[in-house]
């Protein structure tokens, strides 16, 4: 997914990218990510005077560990992607964009624009935080590790919470 900046800008490139990208390497070593599907990329690429625009959507199917009980949770994550890239050396003179908008343009050093690292960054930003198998997941017993969604273990968990019980009393007043 590489584009030549100068060529895309001068020819006013208009193209659609519909591809699947393997991003499994992003999650290597992460024990909370059980499985990752390919990243579905659906972008419109447009060359303009002075910059190249990529706009569209990324999506990915993930199998993650429930943050309470570690059972697999399937998530379909849709990631909006909209970035503008400009050659680092060039200044854009435009009435169309405010200073602030221009400051959000991503500067590209070489003529070759590779979208992959930007898409990988977006995926990481949109990773679900603390996924749950269900909103009322009971989690694992802190004492014996039994999955409490399956059955209770009979541990006297009141004992485990002794330290916190004192805290609770503190906040009662
Ligand atoms: Zn769970
Ligand atoms: Zn237990």
Structure in words:
The protein is an alpha+beta fold and 173 residues long. It folds into 2 domains: 2-135, no CATH class; 138-173, no CATH class. Helix content is 21%, strand content 36%. It has helices at residues 5-10, 99-103, 116-125, 157-160, 162-172, and strands spanning 2-4, 14-21, 33-36, 39-48, 51-65, 72-87, 106-108, 112-114. The strands form 2 sheets. Strands 2, 3, 4, 5, 6 and 7 form a 6-stranded mixed β-sheet that branches. Strands 1-8 form a two-stranded antiparallel sheet. Strand 4 and strand 5 (51-65) form a beta hairpin. The longest helix is centred in the C-terminal third of the chain and has 11 residues, at 162-172. The protein is elongated and about 70 Å long. The structure holds zinc ion (ZN) (2 copies). InterPro entries: YceD (IPR003772). This is DUF177 domain-containing protein. Pfam families: YceD (PF02620).
């Amino acid at each position: 997914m590489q584009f030549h900046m100068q060529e895309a800008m001068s020819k006013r490139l208009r193209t659609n990218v519909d591809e699947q990208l393997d991003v499994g390497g992003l999650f290597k070593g992460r024990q909370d990510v059980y499985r990752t599907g390919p990243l579905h990329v659906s972008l419109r690429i447009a060359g303009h005077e002075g910059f190249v625009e990529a706009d569209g959507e990324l999506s990915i199917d993930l199998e993650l560990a429930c943050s309470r009980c570690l059972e697999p949770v399937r998530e379909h994550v849709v990631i909006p992607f909209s970035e503008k890239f400009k050659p680092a050396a060039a200044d854009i003179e435009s009435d169309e964009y405010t200073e602030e908008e221009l400051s959000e343009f991503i500067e590209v050093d070489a003529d070759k624009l590779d979208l992959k690292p930007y898409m990988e960054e977006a995926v990481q930003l949109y990773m679900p935080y603390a996924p749950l198998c269900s909103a009322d997941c009971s989690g694992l017993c802190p004492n014996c590790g039994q999955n409490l969604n399956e059955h209770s273990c009979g541990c006297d968990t009141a004992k485990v919470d002794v330290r916190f019980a004192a805290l609770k009393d503190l906040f009662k007043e």
